[in-house]
Structures are given as structure tokens and as C-alpha cells.
Amino acid sequence: MGISTHPDEAKAFNKQSERVTWHDKTLWFVREKRDKSVHQLPEWETLRELAAQIKAHTLSHLDDYLLQFEKQAKKNGIKVHWAKDAEDHNQIVKDILIKHEAKKVVKSKSMLTEECGLNPYLSNEGIEVIDTDLGERIVQLAKEKPSHIVLPAIHKKKEEVGELFHQHLQTDKGATDPTYLTEAARQHLREQFLTADAAITGVNFAVAETGGFVVCTNEGNVDMGANLAKVHIASMGIEKIIPLKKHLGIFLRLLARSATGQPITTYSSHFHKPKKGKELHIILVDNGRTKQLSKPDFRSSLNCIRCGACMNTCPVYRRSGGHSYNYSIPGPIGAILSPGKDLNKYSSLPFASTLCGSCTDVCPVKIDIHTQLYKWRQIIGDKGHLPPSKKWSMKITGKVMGHPKTFHIVSLLGTTLLKSPKMILNNPFNTWGKDRDLPQPKHTFSHWYKKQNKHEEQ
Amino acid sequence: MKNNRSSILDTIKHTKIPEVELPRIPYFQGLSYDILNYFTDMLYQLGVEVINGENLEDLPPIISHLGYDNQLIFTQFCELPYRKKIKEEKLKDISLSILKGELGVAENGAIWVNDYKLPHRALTCIGEHLIIALSKKNIVWNMHEAYDTVQPENHGYGVFISGPSKTADIEQSLVKGAHGARSLKVFLYG
Amino acid sequence: MKIGLFIPCYVNQLYPEVGMATLQLLEQFGEVEYPTSQTCCGQPMANSGCEKDSIGSIKVFFEAFQKYDVVVGPSASCVLHLREHGVKLFPEAKEVIDKTYDLTEFLYDVVEVRSLESYFPYKVALHKSCHGLRGMRLGSCSEKVERLPNKQRQLLKMVDGIQLIFPSRRDECCGFGGTFSVTESDVSVRMGNDRIQDYMNNGAEYITSGDMSCLMHLEGLIQRQKLDIKIIHLSQILSSDIKKKTEQKAPKLTTHA
């Protein structure tokens, strides 16, 4: 009780039909750009396979690679921290900031800090966090959460952004031109970059061989933030590690093409050493990843490079919106990561899919997302997290289908029932019949077949 | 939080995961024989203006022509007549940065820039406009070849730049000049 | 060849004409029998998170179809379910499941039909069911960089008079998804309506598919809104007018043996 489910949230989202149309079209546009871009590369499927193998290999030696990374990074002068969970992570960040008497922090996009709830934590400590990715700044000003991992404000219309900027950044009332609004954000955020005491970034790839890491952006906010501030803290999930520098070639070719259809992001920034007189910290975060690693059926979900392609392609995500998932990572990948965190709370997410398989085919690191959705459903069923009505109807259906005689009696009843007036079928409790009719055949196929055969035998 | 480290590593160590071999990366051929043409086409698609020249000496008149004469210009090239050292508080006033491109990648228009002779790392992004000068000889086909050549581990900081800073976070409308350079020109010489 | 006719439970109940069309098509290739003890592939239970409740139906399937050379059903979804999960749930059924085919696979791959004598003079859009497309790879999907023959389209191209219509989104899901259509009905309905609009906008008179479940969902929406478009199963198009023609001359179907 009290847990909002995906169907509830999706229902609310679908009350605004035109908004659904718009949301769906906007994301489909991104998916089409992705298609156009990947179909130009004859080796696309080979790259996916290589990426999946590199990730699988890395996960089978994760401890070794983390140690190698730590050793190299320390040699480079980077300070390495380890966090078991969100709380550890947040505390490590806080301690570094307090040591440097930092009052204002600029942060570039990091789904991990979102997962750890870093912003509210730091603001409780009196430290101001400014999200610098434009989309994230928009949702931050609106006091919302990102609805997409690559396009955090994809649910917002330019009119809403205009109003928000009018309130917070003093843009003209009613102004909605994206160029004008982006310029206002540029001016506002330049000021923040120049006056921030520290910068927090995410990590796209960390290389064990070199002890460095790569962060990808289009806006350049990582480079502005990390390069101007005295302290740079990079937070990464332990699964972000890759063994060799040359593997970056594979992943950078896959990432942006999958995410937005660009051949590469505008900035692919490589950090290996702190600038003289400055500090560079890396926090290696577990927060449930080792738990997921221990589950063979769900291990490959740790391959994820956070491109967002599964969201753009998912026909359910496009028509229910990222907030309907109520998890820091929405969409199909979120629906296989979240049950590992809290099976009961997120038990409706693996069912927010038709199992169409588009997510699996679009995934640049070949995570079998829809198979994992199916597997989570079984675990949710086994552990008793299904709604009772579903559980019992499936038990009964199973029994009926397992006994041909019962089945035929029930199926005769079924066709009789369908002949009754539509009124019965279309009652408010019948979700199928609310918007859909069912055919009303005169007889079943088996009935016809038996009659036919008798006729022939005679 | 020292015990975090051993606890995470121990948990991983005790998780039995079947060995998966590291794959060999095959050689990936380019999509065109004319690598320079492909590269410039790609830059054009990314909203980058390409300027062709013989050598670096061709640059100053072009920059004058572009109207930067009385503005603050930074460069990484000692042979160019612009500022090579800039105080931190002056960074924000830079109108134009001229950086040295080490390597261009034809498949995606990305150019490798690093912090060698870069007094401040923010110089890759803080100037209002950016010119990257790249020798025509230093263009490779794809990212695999690029990583065979560039050595990010030898530099504290380096970045592949593939265009002006941009965003599409407001209704997917592409806008140039988010936080970094508003425009990028690539000067191809040699 | 002794062919066991596998008719999915909902087709049996709601779309007997699809069963008849499939039977009629299959009769060209062997002796077809419909074992009346069959029930269901078990997918509804399994996709709802209760796959263990479906073991009984897989057992029934195994017993009903053991004796045939091949088993053919007009549903990629049900056949795919048996392949992906049936063997794991009831290993004895492997031998039977291995010889079970969706109608498209049977026609295109097993008996290699390359021409038909059917006639269907309408504008038809092929709705690619996700289980057929991405599960069985009956064609190449838009996400992957691959070129596979689009088997259903190849079959439809053999039909006289047909005009194939292409939607703007060539392989988006219709939103049926089994119990998804009920538990997530708002999104499901929306997805279905979007597909129908796409087919209508491109001038289709009929939507066809190898999976009746997608069509049942779409038809439900079409009828409720009284839209000017119809649904028809692939088997019905492929067998249309055969009867009339075959009364005059044989053979009805030619194959590359």
C-alpha cells in the first residue's frame, strides 16, 4: 500500500493526450537520428559484440581491474576513495568539500549522484550544488527530477522552461525561443563556473591500464567546471571500469551514436592527473552493484553505459514519461536495475513492458533487457509481490490450461459469455472492454473442426 | 572508510563469475579512400567552418579579417603573435583561443587537444570562440587508430573536441554555444 | 508429412476463421490433424510472472503433438514462447518443441513456398509482431544493422492483386503484450491507436500480421471507434480465393522441393 505503481503514473501521464503525442514524437526523433547514424557503420554489430565481451570480461575480473586502476590513478596523483553505499559516497564528498571550505559546487551530469541523492544531502549541509548541464539545471530550478538520463528535461515544453527562466534568471516574460533561453543559461552558469569552489562530475569510462577517466558532454560543462575549480571530485560506479585505453575506441564509437545519433559527443574529456596546486578525487561506488554482480541472470545489466537508447526506443517509456518509473534511472534499463535495489517498491516496473525486445536490439552493449524483465517477473511472482488478483487468476488459468477437459468447458462458457450484450463486457471494471471490443464468433474452431470431421466420416 | 575498500573487493572476489576472455579488436577499414575529404565533410556537418592554408603564417591575416584584432586572443603556438600566458582572472575575457590539434579523426570530426603548453586547462572551453589548427598529415580514419596514436596517459588532461559547444535540452532544438566555445573553426594546413 | 495443427487458445475461441485458413493452407503440404486435447502454450501465465503455473499446459502440448512430423501454428508469439521457455519448464517437451513452427517459418523455410495462387486486391499494411520480428527474426528490425529476408512480406508479395502499404514507423509494437494490455491499459490503448493511425495515414485498407493477438488488440480499438480499416490474419490473405480457383484447377500451391 502507498507505493505508486507504473500503471498509476502512466494513467496520469496519459490524461494529457497531446502531451503524450509530443513526448513520443520528440523521443522517436532521437531514435531515428540514432538509426541513421548507426546504419552508416557496417561494423556496428561487431562493435556491439566487442563491447559486450569487453564488459563481460571486465566483470569477471572486476577486483583486479579496480586494484589496477587504483594503483595507476594514485601514481598519477589522483586521490581514490571507496564507497559501499550512497551514504558513504555522500559523506566522502562532504568531507572533501568541508576540508576545502567549499560553499558552492558546480556539478555536471552524473546519474550516480542522482542515485545517491547527493544534492539534497549537500544542501542540508549548507553546501549549494549547481547542476550545470542545461537539462539538469532546468529540472533543478523546477524542483523536479530528471526524466531521462541523457535528456533530463525532455518532458518539459519550452513554454515551461521560459516561465522557469523568467522566474529564476529574469528572462523576458513569455520568451520561449530556445536560443534566447540557452544564452540566458550560458550567462547565468558562466558566473557559477567562475565562482564555484569545487566541481563534481560523473565518469563515463575509467581505464585500468592508465588510471585515468573519460567524461563525455556536448555542452562542455565538465571541462568548464572541473578545469576552473580548485577541487574536482569524480563519482563513478565500480562497473564503469574498462581494461585498456584502446577499448575507449570501441565505447566512444558506440556511446554518442546510440544516445543522440551524433558520431561522438562534442567533448570527450580525459583526466589523468590533477593540475599543479589542485586536487583530483575519484570515488568508486558500489551501492548495490556487487549484489547485482552476484546474480548471473542480471549481471550483464552492469554493462550499461547510460546512453539512454533503450528509453528512446521503448514504446512504453515514450508514452508514460520518465517520472512514471519513480527511479533515478527510468525506462527499460531502470526497470531491470531497480528491482535489485528494492523488489517490493519497484515490483511494477518489470511489467511496464510488452516485451517487444526493441531495448535489447538497440542496446550498444547487448544487455538482454527484455529477457531480464521476464526473469524479474518470475522472481516477483515467486516472492509474492504480484497483486493478488493477478496471482490467483494465473493460478486458475494454469490449472485450466493443464486439463484439456476443463479447458473445453471453460472455453464454451467463454464464447457464450461473449455473446451477451456488450454492456456486460464494457463494465467499468473490465479494463480490456473500456476501450476495446472483442469479436463474437458463432462457434470455436475446435467445435467447427469436430463437426466437420464427423461430417466427413459419415 | 578504509574497510569499504576491502569489503567491496572481498565481495567481488567471493562472487564466482565464469571467466570471459578479452576479445581481440580487429582492424576496421575506413568508409572512404579520401580521408581528408571525409574529415572536412564531417566537420561541415558538425557546424564547423574549415579554413585551408599552407602554414601557420597564413592564420594572422585571417584572424584580422575575422575582426579579432583588438580583442583578447590566446594561443598554444609559440610561432603565433598572440598571448601565450594569461592570468586566471582574465580567462573569462578571452574572445578567441587558438589551440593545437594533435590529431583529427575522420569518422566523427573529433580533434585531440591536450594540455601541453596550455597554461590553464579551461582554455579548451572558456574562450568565446575557438580555432583549432591541425596539420593535414595528422588525420586518421577512426577512433581505434586515434587511440593507437594519442597518449592521454601522458597528459593530465586532454580532450577530443568535435564542434562548437552545443545543447538540445530545450525541446530538442539544437543551440550552439552552451557553455564552451560558440563557434569552432578548423585551420587545416600543411 | 503428418502435420499437427496448433491453434492458440484465443484463436480457437475468438477467431475460428484463422484456424480454418491455416488448416486450408497446410492441407497443401501433408495430412493435417488438429488434436482436440490441446489447450494453450502457457505464455499468459509466464509473462505475468507465474511461469510455473504454465507447466501443465506445456505438458498438455507435448502430449497432444508428440505423434506428428511437424507442428504448425499461426502465431509466432506462442511458438516463440515454447522455444524460449517451454523446454526449460518441461524438458521432455524439447523434441516436440524443436519441430514446432510458426506458419510463416513453415511456409517460407520448411516447405519453401515461392509462389502462391491467392488473390487479394486490397491495400494491406503488414504489422510485424515483435515476437515474430525480434524473437524469431522473420525479418530485419530497424534497430539492428543487418539484412535478413522479410519472410512475411515475401509471402505477401506472392499474392495477386495485393498492394503493400508501408507505415512511417516500420516495426513499432502495437501495445498488446498479453496481460500488459489489461494491467497497463492506458499505455496499451495509446500504443494501439498510434499504430492504427499510422497504417490509416498511409492508406491501408487492411492490417495484417502473423500474430492474431496484435490484431485482436487493434481490432478491438478499431471497432470501438468505428474506424475505416480492417484487420486480417496473414493466413487468411495467403489462402484467400484459393478455394474458388482450386475448384477449377489443381495444384493450388507450388513449392520448391
TrEMBL record, chain A:
> Where does the 4Fe-4S ferredoxin-type domain start and stop, copy by copy?
294-324
Keywords from the UniProt entry: 4Fe-4S, Electron transport, Iron, Iron-sulfur, Metal-binding, Repeat, Transport
Task: Report if keyword Nucleus is assigned.
Answer: no
Q: What Pfam families does this protein's entry cite?
A: Fer4_8, LUD_dom
InterPro entries annotated for this entry? 4Fe4S_Fe-S-bd, 4Fe4S_Fe_S_CS, FTHF_cligase-like_sf, Helical_ferredxn, LUD_dom, LutB/LldF, NagB/RpiA_transferase-like
- GO molecular function annotation: 4 iron, 4 sulfur cluster binding; metal ion binding
Query: What highest taxon heads this organism's lineage?
Result: Bacteria
Keyword tRNA-binding found: no
| Example GO BP | lactate metabolic process
NCBIfam families named in the record = LutB/LldF family L-lactate oxidation iron-sulfur protein (TIGR00273)
Q: What name does UniProt use for this protein?
A: Iron-sulfur cluster-binding protein
From TrEMBL, chain C:
One Pfam family name is CCG
GO molecular function terms listed in the Swiss-Prot or TrEMBL record: oxidoreductase activity
**InterPro entries in the cross-refs:** Cys_rich_dom (IPR004017)
Q: Which residues form the Cysteine-rich domain?
A: 4-83, 124-218
Q: Which GO terms describe its cellular component?
A: cytosol
- Which protein is depicted? (Fe-S)-binding protein
Q: Which organism is it from?
A: Flammeovirga yaeyamensis
Taxonomic lineage of this organism?
A: Bacteria, Pseudomonadati, Bacteroidota, Cytophagia, Cytophagales
